[in-house]
## 1
Amino acid sequence: MANLRLEELSASNALAANKLTLRRGQEQFVIPPSYAIADAYIDPTTSWPRVVLKDDKVVGFIRGNFDPDATQEEFQSCVWRVHVAADQQGQGVGTFAVLALADEARQRGFTKLTALWEPGDDGPELFFTNIGFEVSGQTQYGEKLGVLKL
């Protein structure tokens, strides 16, 4: 992971982030990056959008949200979106991005980071639990809620 770095989402890298491809079957679990990119500008005070670069190529995208005043506790410090290019999955890109987000959450004074995901065979549950998230429940819509203690 030594050649991975984060860069703030910008006009110069947004197109590359939007073109990230997923493995077959993963599309049903992820909203397209263009939605997350647009979301990032709705409230720039709480949004934390970053691209992951491997050398100089965009290979991933992560968006976190930090809102200590959010009425739903799971949205106070959370992973909002994670996308990793299909050919880069399994190489530490997603882990690098989520752990960087966790570090940012810790620096902002949060004691946990949450993530929501759709259950399913090709879903991200194993990814999140391998990083250290513990399933702590589910939403009224059936999404699983994971918590990473910081």
Note: The mean pLDDT is 86.
## 2
Amino acid sequence: MLPRHPAHFVIVGAGAAGLMTARELARAGKRVTILEARERCGGRIYPLPTQEFGYPPEGGAEFVHGAAPFTRALMREARLSLSPLEGTRWNARRGALSPGESPTPHAGRLHRALRTLKTDLPIAEFLKTHFAGRQYSELRRTITRMVEGYDAADPSRASTFSIRDELMERGNGQQGRIAGGYGALIEYLESECHRYGASIHLDAAVGAIDARRERVAARCHGGTVFEADAAILTVPLPLLPEIALPAAAREKAATSADIGFGNVVKILLRFATKWWADNGRRHLADLSFLFSSATVPTWWTQHPAGYPVLTGWLAGPKADRVARLDTSELVEVGLTSLAEIFDRSLDRLRQDLVTSQAINWGNDPFARGAYSYATTKTREAQSALKKPDGGAVFFSGEALYAGRDMGTVEAALASGRETARTILAARP
């Protein structure tokens, strides 16, 4: 049971949601203790060494999607600017490169079917029900690639209503990057937490939350115990079952199984030159994104910046299939995909490679995946996890955000602020 006037909160996780929750509570005069399992803040925001790639590279979240009001407001506070994406998107298909993405086949019929859908169902079932014919095989492949690649989702679980939002109503919106990277935003939030008196403990992995007599105790694996009036868990969903919780909180946490959580493998390759800018067949000096059917299907550059870096993206069930590969093997898969896409010698690509990095978020012990996505049961699960029931354990994070930007840094920041404000409004 939560005390009538809680003054001290322990927050588990120093990612975007945890830091935002902490900043808001500390600014309101509450005592805040943040426990982070890693040796750094940021969670799935993961800045890589600038000296290796020539700019602040992102091993995790990289783009600001759409309006992102919470992200942009925080950027203004931190005096950070947004660099809009520029350049041309290219598509590799049957050995040929062409500008622009391939149009969705039978788009009119697809939109009509989505518009008239009354009951949500998994997108794979929707496609099987409405577009089972051979003439729709390309449509099924296109939608499946989008669901797996952009949403990092399993089509057998992903909500058709959620996909309908992306395809029809508002799309994905304008994208950009934070000048200096998301790491600069985390540094600002971290400094804000310190400014308002919050304490941050790194290398403090929590294994249990005990609640008794209007107090909670967060027990770390190393044996250290932190007591407070209430606990707020902001860890990625797959980690919730690994934290022992009081019965009521454990029952709420169990509903998180109804929220999808997908994996991502991200591969960064720095070459000696921008060899793709003029590869003998097509002039790709302004390449922004490249889409293909290769093993690593999606690539992007830092255009308009001239860094000779290509970033590969493998998401959803396809990312799970390379779970056993180590970093060097993933880099090799990336190089092989580029050799296939550009019809270029693999040995030459290896010779041109200056440095590389590959991050499989599914193998990260403090993430176990990349980000959440909506299933047909997600909205009910989110309501259950956010329901104020007088208990001393709260949940927050990008997976609990009910807006369309679920799975993003924007969602994490919005959820963190919402959690803090809900607590402050109910408990003066």
Note: The mean pLDDT is 93.
## 3
Amino acid sequence: MSPVPVQIVYLICAVLFILGLKRLSRPRTAVAGNQMGAAAMLLAVVVTLLDRQIVSYEIIIAGLITGAAAGILLAVKIKMTAMPQLVGLFNGLGGGASALVAGAALLELVSLHGGSRSPGSIFIVATSFSGIVGAVTFWGSVVAFGKLQGFVTGKAVQFSGQNAVKLILLMISLGLGGWLFFSPMSGYLYWAMLLFSSLLGVFLVIAIGGADMPVVIALLNSYSGVAAAATGFVLANNLLIISGSLVGAAGLILTNIMCKAMNRSLRNVLFGGVGRELSVKAEEEETYAGKVKSATAEEIAMMLDGAGRVVVVPGYGMAVAQAQHAVRDLMNLLEARGSVVEFAIHPVAGRMPGHMNVLLAEADIPYEKLKEMDEINTTMEQVDVAIVLGANDVVNPLARSRSDTPLAGMPIIDVDKARTVIVLKRSLGAGFSGVPNPLFAADNTLMYYGDGKEGILDLIAALKET
């Protein structure tokens, strides 16, 4: 296959990637956008395999079979509650692959030409950049996966002088990259650079609390794209440069959106250490003592029976309980009785960007019922009953009233302004921020203790009996 047709096909794939990303911006067209991007990637892989000098198709086919088997197994076995850590792991695999491919290209050049031909400046710079960013992405994603999966503590692990350590690791990594530039045939320098970059990735993410994982996942997604684009320069592959740049830009935009949703800078997320043990936890007894009121499913059913407008605020607790289908059934029952039911979505609810949207879409809840935070807050005072299902930090009024907590200034869903608030949680435990939530003790709040799914099912049964 001649180079010109290949470049034309690459251009077509690039256009499909861009159109697919555009479609991903809207829920109704997201599935088609995802399919368009997948088709473009398949076309790009096929064309590349036909164009390049392939040493052994047998090895490639074996890799395809292995990868497909792993992908199918993950698609079937992974629950929706584990989707955030799976996405984080995918980011890491992309970054790790970029680093290994760039390293393999360097080793190939060294082994084929020895000291007879020195690689170009762009090749070495791109190789070093891909290695550093790819290693940081992989090991940072592994730590993020561990935090979300529970293998690693969700709290921010910090120690004295940690920022200095991270700076030293970065300087060493860059220094080794610079050394490689002047001594490109010393392949061991690349792997030494990967070692220190890997340590940097671990220290960067281990110091970030679980509450900030949506931002971390978005940022690591951007890193994986940047690493892929750099590898595109290593391989002189225009499509890899374009696709990596698109992923990098999209991830960075999403990271910015997540930071704005928390009213924090990216620097504060990376170095602020939200999730440490905080002295404010001592205020829990004072916040809740003698003020918290609970209710049964039957009592809540009587309130909902005459409610004109009901707003559900989903959180990670809904994901853990797999309660989205039960929530859909509750919505259908309430609407059959004349209630208007909507869902208030906070940008950082859950453990990854768009987590709640994905879960509710899985339960076939209409997209138009999903309201963004800014939209729903303007009419929250007109809500008869607000049901908080497993959310905590994103509805904590302390974000508005206290400047000495990790939530200070973070925009929240103003459920406390609703006429009645029902909070369905297992306990009064704090969210990832580690601060108590005075909403639980508010005069207009009733706590409904229990598992999210079982609690909603009990509520449905009680409603049917009213």
Note: The first strand starts at residue 309 and ends at 314.
